[in-house]
Design goal:
8% strand; 704 residues; 5-stranded parallel beta sheet; 3-stranded antiparallel beta sheet; alpha/beta
């Protein structure tokens, strides 16, 4: 430790060392904070001209603006008043964030994501000016708030520098000349692993860059036009930074750094540490090394246990329990909650943490903490993590004794998660969260609900629904999730009430309200169409009845006309025969005369008989002539009979044509009535389908 302490002192010497960054790297519990504490005490005693900013990320800080404010407030020589710029920005930011929770949840999530602190493995720089402009337009953000919300790195760096100049150099709005001697600022950032990515990015790519290279008069967010052109904050102040962390610091092209890596004790150093307490553990050195893992604070516990055992190592389990207890005391409250949440689980991954009430609102930070604490967490072959057994036993027993209700809740969640994981592990990891979200629905339609809830992922979710027809059952275009999955998911949600469930339920409720409004309009339209169709069908049926009656009437008239036509035909034939009668009498008379002459020559018939025959023929001819004369009295009757016959034939043809037209019209009406009946059936089914959909709301009023 002496050598490391000397290295820190050498770095912190502003007059002899030009390096700006010192990184102290080491595993959890290896003694980084102990080393920094010793240096800090020496600094406060000896270096009166150095202003110390001493930041320790044990507080519950989520956002960049809060970090910058906390860093400002960590100054040991800070006046009683709060820094003006960082204080103002921090409070305005929190006000905007709180406003967005109630007014625009999507905006709230965006602000929270852009401004939150992140660890090294998952950190990506965000908030370019182009992104900020797009987001500003998308959410209708005021110009004065846009940079605060969407460009936090640049704004907070300039704000922090303005604070430094105001507090330590008494520079308010102008600087007519440069100081004769620069102020010396030393920043110590200890235990900031939970936010190392964001903090490092802010330090190296914004604070130091602006501090050394950007003229104060060119600051984007403050009126510093009174400063000399080209003057930077580095012309007034010198900065050195000491950072401690578990993850190696990534080198920057602009800023090199000195690194001190603190290793756990080797066997030889463990023996020396025990020898310093007059304890010889050479025979048990392998056991001691295994138990202590070379970590100084655990070695201290073993020393205490051996001293209490009068030189003997009696109960290593007790040492492990004490080590776990001391370790928990060393951790921040948030980190303790992270471990308590997963200690009841056999194993876990990032998705698991979303169900843990103690960590679900900051699952990413928790996962980053676990990833950086290899001496607390074991990695299994499946890729999942698990709390080390001795630590797990200590945590579960302490939670059970101190908070039985909390322990019972965590045990229940662990049990339910085990069932959930068994069911869901057969699905690809990228599908699990979507299937889980679909299980939150009471029911859903494939288009409207999925688009409303899943947005840009809607197409992916629809493919999942199509991929597993045995899980997503369709009825009347409405889907429901398999009861096995629904039960496993909702029972776990009921126990944990995850943030994903709460956020998704809000979207489902909004989706159902919009869908219900859409269904109401469709039902109103379908009812109106059905009413109009029934009215039209009624008119068609009346027309059909009228045509039927007209058809019967015309058929009766046709029968009568047919009879009259037959009579007219007969009368016409009779008139035609009567009209030809005189022409028939001439050959008849010639024939009679010829016959009489023949008979007179070749027979002995008396003249009297022949005369009698001639008289009879004359009488017949005269009678026929009389008939003809009587016919002549009705002069023109043949034409009349023909005209009368023609009229009846025309009447018959007209009636037949009208009957055919009526039959055609009735056939068309029948087709229309059949179509109307089909439309009626379809509309009736549509109305019933819509009513059935209304009976199946998307949202569950109660889960489980």
């Amino acid at each position: 430790m002496v050598n490391n302490l000397q290295a820190i002192n050498n770095f912190a010497n502003f007059t002899e060392n030009s390096e700006k960054i010192l990184f102290i790297e080491g595993a959890f519990g290896v003694g980084k904070s102990y080393l920094i504490e010793n240096f800090r005490n020496e600094l406060l005693n000896d270096a009166k001209d150095v202003i110390l900013y001493d930041y320790n990320h044990n507080k519950q800080i989520y956002y960049l603006h809060e970090f910058v404010y906390s860093l400002s407030m960590s100054c040991t020589t800070l006046p009683a008043i709060d820094p003006r710029e960082t204080y103002l920005n921090r409070n305005i930011f929190l006000e905007r964030l709180n406003e967005a929770i109630g007014s625009n949840y999507k905006l709230y999530r965006q602000i929270k994501e852009i401004n939150r602190l992140r660890n090294v493995p998952n950190f990506l720089a965000t908030g370019s000016s182009a992104d900020a402009k797009a987001l500003q337009l998308q959410f209708g953000i005021q110009n004065e708030d846009a940079s605060l919300l969407f460009r936090p790195f640049e704004l907070s760096a300039e704000s922090f520098i303005i604070d430094i100049l105001q507090v330590h150099c008494q520079i308010l709005s102008d600087a007519a000349s440069l100081p004769q001697e620069k102020k010396k600022l030393l920043f110590i950032l200890d235990n900031c692993d939970a936010a190392a990515g964001s903090i490092n990015h802010w330090l190296f790519h914004h604070l130091l860059q602006i501090f050394e290279h950007k003229a104060i008069s060119d600051f984007s967010f403050f009126d510093t036009s009174g400063f000399l052109k080209g003057v930077t904050a580095a012309d007034f102040i010198e900065i050195k930074i000491i950072i401690s962390g578990r993850e190696p610091l990534q080198p920057s092209e602009d800023y090199k750094f000195t690194a001190i890596k603190i290793e756990p004790f080797s066997k030889d150093r463990i023996i020396k540490a025990f020898a310093a307490s007059n304890i010889d553990v050479r025979a048990n050195i392998d056991l001691v090394e295994k138990v202590t893992q070379g970590l100084p604070y655990i070695i201290g516990l073993v020393v205490e246990a051996i001293i209490m055992g009068k030189g003997e190592i009696r109960d290593f389990q007790q040492v492990e329990r004490l080590a776990a207890a001391r370790l928990m005391n060393y951790l921040s409250p948030e980190e303790q909650d992270y471990l308590r949440a997963v200690a009841f689980l056999q194993d876990f991954d990032g998705e698991t943490l979303e169900f843990m009430p103690l960590v679900k609102k900051d699952a990413t930070a928790a996962m980053n903490f676990f990833a950086s604490c290899t001496n607390l967490i074991d990695k299994k072959q499946s890729g999942k993590l698990a709390v080390k057994e001795e630590l797990k036993q200590y945590i579960t027993s302490s939670v059970q004794s101190e908070s039985p209700k909390v322990a019972q809740s965590l045990e229940a969640i662990a049990y339910l998660y085990s069932d959930y994981d068994k069911i869901m592990k057969s699905f690809p990891s990228e599908e699990r969260v979507f299937i889980r979200m679909l299980a939150y629905f009471n029911s859903f339609d494939k288009i409207f609900a999925i688009q409303s809830v899943f947005g840009e992922n809607a197409a992916t979710v629809r493919k999942i629904v199509d991929k597993y027809p045995s899980i997503f059952k369709e009825d009347n275009q409405i889907f429901k999730v398999s009861q096995t999955i629904t039960k496993a998911v909702l029972e776990l949600e009921e126990a944990s009430q995850s943030e994903l469930f709460e956020a998704t339920q809000q979207k489902i409720r909004a989706s159902w309200a919009n869908y219900l409004a859409k269904l109401d309009k469709e039902l109103e339209s379908a009812d109106a169409k059905l009413a109009d169709l029934l009215q039209d069908a009624e008119l068609l049926e009346k027309q059909d009845v009228s045509l039927f009656q007209e058809h019967k009437k015309l058929e009766a008239e046709l029968d009568i006309t047919q009879i009259k036509l037959s009579d007219a035909i007969n009368l016409h034939q009779k008139y035609k025969m009567a009209a030809n009668m005189p022409l028939l009498l001439i050959p008849f008379a010639i024939a009679i005369a010829s016959i009489i002459e023949i008979f007179a020559k070749f027979t002995n018939i008396s003249q009297t008989v022949l005369l009698a025959c001639a008289a009879a023929g004359a009488v017949f001819g005269i009678s026929r002539l009389w008939v003809y004369i009587k016919f002549l009295r009705g002069k023109g009757s043949v034409k009349e009979a023909a005209a009368n016959r023609k009229n009846y034939e025309i009447a018959k043809d007209n009636l037949s044509s009208n009957i055919k037209k009526i039959i055609s019209d009735r056939e068309a009406l029948s087709a229309q009535l059949q179509t109307a009946a089909q439309l009626k059936d379809k509309l009736t089914r549509d109305v019933q389908s819509i009513k059935n959909k209304i009976k199946e709301p998307f949202v569950r009023e109660e889960i489980g």
